[in-house]
Amino acid sequence: MLDAAVVIVNFRCEDHTLRCIDHLGLQGGDRPAQVIVVDNSPSESLSRGLFLIDPTVKYLPQRHNLGFAGGVNRGLHHAMRKTVILLNPDARPDPGCLGGLCDVVAREGDVVAGPAMVPLTPGRPSHPSALRRDPDLWTALVEYTVAHRVVGRSWLDHNYFLRSKDVSSSPVECATVQGACLAFPRTLTDRVGEFDAARFFLYWEETDFLRRVRSAGGRVLFCSHLTCRHDGGASMVNGRQDTEQFWRGLYRYHRKYGGRLTELLLRSAMVPGMVTELALLSALHVVRRGSDRDLRRNMKTVQMRLREQFRVWPTHGGPSGR
Length: 322
Hints:
alpha/beta
């Protein structure tokens, strides 16, 4: 059994959470000594199901939705083990993953370690497991506007994203690993503070936390030899992810580290960049006479992103609930 506390934040994904707890119970020597479930949407079915699967799970129902950052902080207050592992309800660590992360943390000291993330469902797209560098104005524009069609999407793959195929079997230092599964020593938050729940309700909270870890002299390690399966989107509401919270988090992150001017520049460039991309795609749609399904899908994505920019203005003040 691992000297680790796993913290899981649940929001309207009881089935995923119960399956995750059941999965952890089958890990043998890779099983954590403490499991904490922070429930942002309390339900009797989850409480009862947890007791039936594993009565030792620490169940913490909340009166209102604290968001991911607030839920993690609540779980940290109850973590009593040497290592803390954050795990999404729809994440399934492969055999040896959690033990390997604990070994890296024990060996390396003040580090945050994350595994390679692979799709839980066959056929689902694979998302980058880590970032080479901190997000900045340029990377945001390349990722979300017409700029990626100018410099090429490959620029992000070579200069921003870090994938398992890019590294060796040893841990590699990087800027950020995915918050869906990561491990760090419990004492690390004594040095760098907890997650910034005042700014980040959902999304960008781990990016901010890991940046503060590195600023305090710690390191972030991507462990491509360890794997965790994860699709994402378990807490979708009405089949839709809370992308408005994503944009709010993005702008708050850039304001925190770049100031109001950086946030303003990003906002001022984001909408024209999306409008330009939509115009380009629309022109291609006419030329191809609407026969390209991928093109139509890309147009809908840009249209949705563009609408969301106006919904999240302004972003001053604390995060709102879903």
